[in-house]
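Help needed: design a sequence for this.
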């Protein structure tokens, strides 16, 4: 080391070949990196069909063929030169770039570590094609005629043949092809209007026709990510403030042990951004099981001028001009989409991603005299009091049974509104009961065999070991974990009550807590003083590296102030938003709800079970408990028939 220092070399310009190989270290990590760059070039060329052919995981051959606009003979040598591109001309173009590629480095870097052949034709006559080749050399390229239809074919052979040190770091053929397939999958999800083909060792792996209709898009997602994804996903589409989000969000019950099905696109470019990841995590915070990862395919569209895509060597990350606005938009959009997850919206087994038939709405009441006059029975209704609760000969409950039902419901939920369970007001001409205080005994039309008028979760049949509720709905059998379901109901009710209160109740600390902080944390505390105060925290700067905590939310009076403040400041510094106070308060409410919910082995009456089912249908996020576990599941009649081999 001392010898090198004592005799320093002069500064000199690197050889073009060496410079390209250094640049290839950023662009060409493995065969999947080459595949990504070549596909992006094909998309930028306006292709309607892109074929990718791989051999030996990409180590032997990577070939991408498209039917785009092609490259003219005069431009072919420049196509392999560094910093040569047709996609931008000025700084203004760079600041608002909409193409996937724009640096003009990819082909030069790839050709420096492989044997590259590019054949292209910009004319409709196939005889007007030209070929350019390069084999790990400097900037020279050889151009010769080559028949080719309109479009471009790029073949990359023997990757890293002239850099053995890098070639030996390639993994097995199976591993490398898995990375190539993932790169192909991301690009195929970005453009539904393009037909795609992927072959490996002469075998077709994916063949995807173009399609822009919702059904065609769902078929492509099912082909690339599996039918389970689309069956357990909810479509989202929202627009506000110049931002538009659309795509599919997986239900919390369909989570994965690793984050391998998370695809986020910004103006058609697949990105992995920490701000986006944080917004998604916060949106799933209340409903996702610990240690699990959500699945999603989301598309964010915004003005190219407000996002910088030139901040990462491989363009995997972007920087938003107003990151706080983007974060809030993503969080609120996903939060509301997941909050609407209720049994009313679909059945757990038949697929949450598909629209379901609308639930029968309660019809206006018809008088008995009108019904007789028209020669028809009153229309079906599913007010809870009309349900047969026992095997008595009288299938239509009278006033006493309705009153007992209401008493059972109120015992379970004293303060809950009674909209679904209260008899509808009578209109003129309806026959009154003999007593004003008694619900009329006239029978309500409840179909005994046609279950289509039943609520989404149906009607309770009984209890299993004091833990599960068995119910029957239009699809078949419903199983409900009564503790998990009631826990979510109580939790959501407590959150709503807290949100309805005027601000967060605060409690001054008897002795202010002093924190040793970095200068960055102190600067964040000063710049975000108003945002911190809105969360019920009073934080003062007592010195260049000291903070004083004078006040906390009353519900967090027993919390560790130092850990809470540090996490708040970190989130504010990185994302411009913090949900730490809300998360801590919700953790406390979740614990209270867990201990205050109906416990296992408690015997419930049929009335109480039905009341719980109706509450689930009205409560947001009732498909999962506070810890992210499912609260109910559906077994269809077809599944039950298969179980007992009926019809076989």
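Sure. Designed sequence:
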């Amino acid at each position: 080391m001392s010898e090198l220092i004592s005799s320093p070399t002069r500064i000199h310009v690197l050889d073009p070949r060496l410079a390209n190989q250094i640049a290839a270290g950023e662009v060409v990590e493995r065969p999947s990196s080459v595949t990504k760059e070549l596909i992006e070039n094909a998309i930028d060329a306006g292709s309607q069909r892109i074929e990718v052919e791989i051999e030996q995981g990409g180590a032997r051959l990577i070939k991408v063929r498209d039917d785009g606009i092609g490259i003219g003979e005069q431009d072919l040598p420049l196509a392999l030169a560094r910093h040569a591109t047709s996609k931008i001309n000025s700084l203004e173009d760079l600041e608002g770039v909409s193409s996937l590629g724009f640096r003009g480095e990819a082909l030069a870097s790839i050709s420096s570590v492989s044997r590259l052949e590019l054949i292209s034709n910009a004319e409709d006559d196939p005889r007007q094609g030209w070929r350019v080749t390069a084999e790990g050399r400097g900037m020279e390229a050889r151009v010769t005629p080559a028949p080719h239809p309109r479009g471009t074919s790029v073949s990359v052979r023997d990757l890293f043949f002239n850099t053995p040190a890098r070639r030996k770091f390639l993994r097995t053929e199976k591993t490398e092809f898995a990375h190539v397939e993932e790169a192909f999958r991301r690009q195929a999800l970005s453009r539904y209007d393009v037909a795609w083909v992927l072959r490996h060792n002469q075998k077709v792996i994916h063949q995807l026709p173009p399609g822009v209709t919702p059904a065609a898009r769902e078929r492509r997602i099912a082909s690339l990510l599996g039918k389970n994804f689309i069956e357990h996903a909810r479509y989202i589409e929202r627009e506000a403030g110049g931002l538009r989000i659309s795509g599919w969000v997986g239900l919390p019950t369909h989570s994965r042990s690793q984050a391998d099905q998370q695809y986020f696109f910004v103006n058609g470019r697949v990105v992995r951004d920490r701000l986006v990841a944080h917004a998604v995590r916060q949106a799933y915070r209340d409903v996702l099981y610990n240690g699990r990862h959500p699945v999603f395919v989301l598309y964010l569209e915004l003005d190219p001028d407000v996002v910088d895509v030139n901040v990462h060597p491989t363009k995997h990350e972007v920087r938003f001009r107003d990151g706080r606005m983007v974060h809030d938009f993503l969080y609120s959009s996903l939060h509301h989409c997941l909050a609407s997850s209720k049994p009313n919206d679909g059945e757990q087994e038949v697929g949450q991603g598909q629209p379901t038939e609308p639930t029968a709405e309660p019809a206006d009441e018809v008088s008995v005299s009108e019904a007789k006059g028209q020669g028809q029975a009153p229309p079906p209704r599913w007010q809870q009091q009309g349900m047969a609760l026992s095997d008595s000969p009288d299938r239509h409950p009278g006033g006493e049974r309705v009153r007992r039902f209401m008493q059972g419901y109120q015992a379970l939920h004293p303060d809950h509104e009674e909209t679904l369970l209260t008899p509808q007001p009578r209109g003129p001409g309806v026959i009154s009961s003999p007593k004003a205080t008694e619900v009329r005994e006239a029978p309500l039309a409840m179909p005994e065999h046609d279950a289509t008028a039943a609520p989404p979760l149906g009607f309770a049949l009984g209890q299993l070991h004091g833990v599960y509720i068995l119910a029957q709905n239009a699809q078949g059998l419903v199983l409900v974990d009564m503790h998990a379901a009631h826990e979510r109901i109580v939790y959501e009710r407590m959150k709503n009550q807290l949100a309805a209160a005027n601000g967060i109740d605060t409690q001054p600390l008897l002795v202010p807590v002093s924190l040793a902080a970095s200068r960055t944390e102190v600067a964040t505390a000063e710049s975000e003083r108003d945002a911190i105060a809105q969360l019920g925290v009073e934080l003062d700067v007592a010195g260049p590296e000291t903070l004083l905590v004078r006040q906390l939310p009353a519900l967090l009076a027993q919390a560790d102030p130092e850990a809470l403040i540090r996490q708040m400041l970190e989130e504010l510094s990185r994302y411009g938003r913090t949900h730490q106070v809300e998360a801590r308060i919700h953790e406390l409410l979740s614990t209270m709800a867990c201990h205050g919910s109906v416990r296992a082995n408690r015997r419930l009456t049929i009335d109480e079970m039905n009341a719980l089912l109706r509450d689930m249908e009205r409560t947001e996020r009732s498909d999962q408990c506070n810890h992210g576990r499912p609260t109910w599941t559906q077994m269809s009649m077809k599944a039950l028939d298969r179980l007992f081999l009926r019809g076989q």
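The CA atoms of residues 161 and 636 lie 58 Å apart.
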